[in-house]
Design goal:
There is one protein chain. By secondary structure, the chain is α/β, with parallel strands linked by helices. It has helices at about 15-35, 50-55, 65-75, 75-85, 95-105, 130-140, 160-180, 185-210, 220-225, and strands at about 40-45, 60, 120-125, 145-150. It has a domain at about 25-185: Rossmann fold. It has a four-stranded parallel β-sheet, sandwiched between helices. Strand 1, helix 2 and strand 2 form a beta-alpha-beta unit. Helix 3 crosses helix 5, helix 4 crosses helix 5 (about 95-105) and helix 5 packs parallel to helix 6 (about 130-140).
């Protein structure tokens, strides 16, 4: 029998958005790893937590959802999920959560490693499973978890009471992080971060608005593969949260 034909590895154009976004994501992981090695505290952050807060404080955070997706895409999802299920976690819960819970225990995954957390940053503006997922990791590792609750709003407008409620939680998160890390809040730095945040948000909205054209330059699969890489300061969708509360 002849040798089985293998597909040549696809070369990614270094000028393409895919290549450049991949570099951004890789650098975020390597920067966090280096910070951990220097003895700095590193957090695990949910994708919907206002990352402008740790960015203003000069903290490094990584994203368990992004890591779980990377592990699964590279073939490690079944192994990690089985590990979590062996610890008693139901196979009915989110696969991202199971992969992340397994990684917190094993502390190693050849598909995608990232530093272990010193604190957890959670927000419930995606799903309630995330709360228990992050709570479990915080309890297992005996580290603090900062939670921001976004109340359900059936109306188009956001009330003053809701705004004040979320604003108070933002300030509480800031003060908790100051106590945990010893870092100090800077209004000047915050303004710089928010300027970057707004610019990235506008660019993202403009890019995704191109889907209105026929034929569309991208599909839903493209967006799902791209948007986690935008989880940097400023890569935010305007309608997710009332950002400008300070």
């Amino acid at each position: 029998m002849g040798e089985e034909a293998t597909k040549p590895k696809r070369v990614v154009d270094p000028n393409s958005a895919k290549f450049k976004l991949g570099q951004i994501a890789a650098k975020a992981y390597s920067d966090a790893m280096e910070a951990k090695e220097r003895g700095e505290l590193v957090g695990w952050c949910s994708s919907n937590f206002p990352v402008e807060i740790p960015e203003t404080l000069g903290l490094y955070v990584v994203y368990p959802e992004n890591q779980a997706a990377g592990i699964a895409a590279r073939g490690g999802g079944e192994r990690m999920c089985s590990e979590a299920e062996g610890e008693g976690y139901s196979n009915d819960i989110c696969a991202y959560a199971r992969i992340s819970l397994a990684y917190a225990k094993l502390k190693d995954a050849p598909e995608q490693n990232m530093p272990q957390p010193d604190f957890m940053l959670c927000c419930n503006n995606i799903c309630n499973c995330m709360i228990k997922w992050y709570e479990n990791i915080a309890k297992e590792l005996d580290i603090p978890m900062i939670m921001i609750d976004i109340p359900f709003n059936p109306d188009y407008e956001v009330s003053d009471a809701e705004t004040e409620y979320i604003k108070a939680q933002f300030w509480d998160a800031i003060h908790q992080l100051e106590d945990i890390t010893g870092k100090k809040w800077s209004e000047e730095r915050f303004k710089e971060v928010m300027e970057s945040s707004g610019r990235a948000s506008r660019a993202w909205i403009e890019a995704t608005s191109q889907a209105k054209y026929v034929p569309s330059p991208f599909n839903g699969f493209d967006l799902l593969n791209t948007w986690p890489l935008w989880l940097r300061p400023g890569a935010r969708r305007k309608r997710e949260r009332p950002w400008r509360l300070f």
